[in-house]
Amino acid sequence: MEQRRTSRLDESELAEVLSALHSRAETNDETVIPRVLSAAAERGAQSDQDMSDLLADAYIPISPVVGRLLHVLALSRRPGRIVEFGTSHGLSTIYLAAATSTHDEPVITTEAEPSKIAAARDNFAAAGVADRIELRVGDAFETLADLDEPISLLFLDGWKGLYLPLLRQLENSLVNGAIVVADDTTLLPELCADYLEYIRSNTGSYVSSSLPVDDGLEVSVVIR
Length: 224
Hints:
There is one protein chain. The chain is of the alpha/beta class. The chain has helices spanning about 10-45, 65-75, 90-95, 115-125, 140-145, 165-170, 190-200, and strands at about 80-85, 105-110, 135, 150-155, 175-185, 205-210, 215-220. Helix 2 runs parallel beside helix 3.
């Protein structure tokens, strides 16, 4: 018998941490992002990977609206693991973890930027969800290579040019009805183009919809 889903999103401790993180991220990125874009233009960066060292100090967070949507999708998912590509400081991870309980396997999240690992772990602990999260450090293609469990929700929010190859690597683990969410699709459309063409045209495997929320989301459901 499937366990009843519970939400911790409105627990005071967790809600306070999310509010503080959103505020801190907005203040931080107001100064950091213009500096990143200026430096990127000077070096002729063509992708977010080309700017990885510049983005080390940026939060690049999801908005509260997107966070709550991710939480709702996590609550409505089929049985299986939640997997996230791109932890950063852990905002989206906390929204996802708040939809899990001790009956679920922890959320698997991945981060390659060393400077963000300690901050993310501190945020997970402050929100009271550290035990609901498995943070894998390093190249996601390597840290997820041994993942052979069913995946019911996949959130793509790391380097945009890697969305498609990572989806293809994990594709066989996606359960029927799995939800796949890709972020920043209107913010960086050129970098997401291959992914969007694949997931929208592969109508035998996915039903997909573009949501004009925040920096753009592509929400897809796996059909077998």
